[in-house]
Amino acid sequence: MREAVTLSDVAREAGVSPSTVSRVINGTARVAASKREAVLRAIERLHYRPNILAKGLAQGRSLTIGVITQEISSPYYGEMLKGVEQALEGTTYHPIFASGHWRVDQEEAALKVLVSRQVDGLIVMDGSVPEERLQELAHTMPVVVVGRKIPGLQCLGIDNRQGAYEGVQHLIELGHRRIAHIAGPTSHPDAIERLEGYRAALEDAHIPFDPALVVVGDYMEQSGLLAVEALLARGALFTAIFAANDQMAYGANVALYRRGIRVPHDVSLVGFDDLPSSSYFTPPLTTVRQPGPAMGWEAARLILALLEGRDYTPKPLSTQLVVRESTALIRSSGALAAHLLT
């Protein structure tokens, strides 16, 4: 087995001192052009690779960024994590991912693990860890929070209320007035804001809010299916559904399909997120796009700036209504009423 090439080997090959090699690699001081070229040629001949970990430890850093997501398997969080990875690519930092599963105890456990690993910075995506805990951590390392607003911390997010408003407004413009809402968990700030946007759009259109048209889900596909089953079981009449995320919209579509209720002929359907699979949904899903990869990217670039002590202004993040084939002008609620009577 070939022994690893050391800095001393490079110095010997280049005919310079180890400190000169170190200065060339780190760029910490001026080195004569002839010596610099000799070092670079030696590095290339010997295929030398600096020990980044050792360098980081010497500087008191682990060169890692802790990232707490709520569900690594979630397509939504997967898009954000992809953005984090892309932003850190080519830097000396690498991400360490951990899931909180929307449980405070598991989020706290993930925090403890990351802190024990001596991560240099922390990105927290949503979650329910108390604000005071994150504010306390920010005294020991840079912290960036995505999807929450916490005083004193660097926070990134979108306007969930406005995004939901635009999704429901689109349905109203198509003539729908009986619009059901499959909401996210009541403990989630983004779900609360999307419900507020739904209600605001109805109010501005002078459509009375009907609590019987709102069912709470958990952002997973099955809860969207069960929500539609609950609406139909209670005899609720509706011609459109606004789901608080795409995954629940997928489940809602399955429930409607099993009842013979056609999208969008009988019921229009709008989601929220614009996951990659929503373009290939049947029919392709009208949804409110939020920039998942961009949020991950901006969070990572911001944490890098904090670590390097430089200013960085994240690019504005906004939602966008993407109209596809799952919504249409209202025709009649007769088909749905017939299904409710059978």
From TrEMBL:
Keywords: DNA-binding, Repressor, Transcription, Transcription regulation. Residues 5-59 form the HTH lacI-type domain. CDD domains: HTH_LacI (cd01392), PBP1_LacI-like (cd06290). PROSITE patterns: HTH_LACI_1, HTH_LACI_2. It comes from the Bacteria. SUPFAM superfamilies: lambda repressor-like DNA-binding domains, Periplasmic binding protein-like I. PANTHER family: HTH-TYPE TRANSCRIPTIONAL REPRESSOR PURR-RELATED (PTHR30146:SF148), LACI-RELATED TRANSCRIPTIONAL REPRESSOR (PTHR30146). This is Catabolite control protein A. It comes from Meiothermus taiwanensis. The gene is ccpA_3.
